[in-house]
């Protein structure tokens, strides 16, 4: 079987973009073309202002773009020229119909499969189609059915599952040094040949022992299971944080103790306001829906609790803010530090900050928000979504202001709330911030990243996750 010389990626988002950039960098003998219907997104990929922020990504793009890495809106041409086509399209949770609120909406995956079938011309030979989007089990079978029923003479298709395990904020490092690469395919000679061909691409930079092959369904389920297990750990330590606050224990000390157990390990044991991002909640709800469809209600209930507790953690933190501010925040200015769902990314999907903002706005607060990578347009788009703000969007524009620096955002605020663990928040001049705030000045550290003792000495009333902070009475001489 001839090696792969041309790759097309359908979808220029958080998965397709970085993945193919690294693939182009590590495989200079392969032409990689990333395509998308969005003219604006492709224009951004071809500019110095990339559509997504990821440390190290800009350098990789500038190294390869125009050589063996291309960004285009000419989808048909890219498909025709490709030996292998990645499907990296969005698979959001359904908002209507059967499975509403849980099942993955596969309309973009189906449209991609139909476009491939329609575009490939007679006599083009073998085409390998790889699903990289997070999809429910047996989605590859659906893609295969569409391709098989629309096949043209002289064309053969092999469908593989190759889920992506990168984490936003560390995507480049994750792609360069993956823990594992999963490739699932049919257990036929043709299927094995296709798996080997994709494996050969990864072997340009990934050691053979980290490339794992399996059947398609195992590969698909492994992605859902991995995200479910990671989210479960976060909800587990967050549940301990509530117990710690009630008893006087310190959740960081508890995490340290249990993380020393080699059977458990220390990762994903950082208590916080809850997980966010495009994958964890979506994938767990998808797993819940699959379990319900398979008549496994106990399994569905088990995993649904992970999401339920995450929602509870956000609400619990928001309620604590209200209670500390004398049970009323109407017309009070509250400053949010961070709006992205985690540091080192501009992605706001399912960010805890959105839901904390919603709860505070529902209580009548006025919000000032600062995030180093999230634009005002993105913040307002999230906060005016119907499920966040069912009332007039004008109300949000009246109550929310976005700032380009943290000091102006905190000026005159009754409280500062740390929602994202950006490194720069650790090094801010909090004495300066304190002096410009309304007194008593409150600081709520939702990410446990600040020096709480120092903040208390400055004069802040400090609250954090999973720990009681006793504020010492400070004697002052009043002149």
Head-to-tail CA distance between termini: 88 Å
Strand fraction: 5-15%
| Unreliable stretches covering 5 or more consecutive residues | 471-479
Helix fraction by DSSP (H/I, runs of at least 4): 40-55%
Helix-and-strand structural type: alpha/beta
Task: Count the DSSP helices.
Answer: 18
Give the number of DSSP strands.
Answer: 14
Strand order of the largest sheet: 3-2-1-4-5-6
Query: Mean pLDDT, nearest integer?
Result: 94
Mass-distribution shape: elongated
What's the quaternary structure here?
single chain
Summarize the entry for a quick read.
Helices cover 43% and strands 14% of the residues.
Give an overview of the whole structure.
The longest helix is centred in the middle third of the chain and has 32 residues, at 216-247. The chain contains 18 helices and 14 strands. It is of the alpha/beta class. Helix content is 43%, strand content 14%. Helix 6 links the parallel strand 5 and strand 6 (155-161). Helix 9 runs parallel beside helix 12 (297-324). The strands form three sheets. A six-stranded parallel β-sheet has the order 3-2-1-4-5-6, sandwiched between helices. A six-stranded parallel β-sheet has the order 11-10-9-12-13-14, with helices on both faces. Residues 471-479 have low confidence and may be disordered.
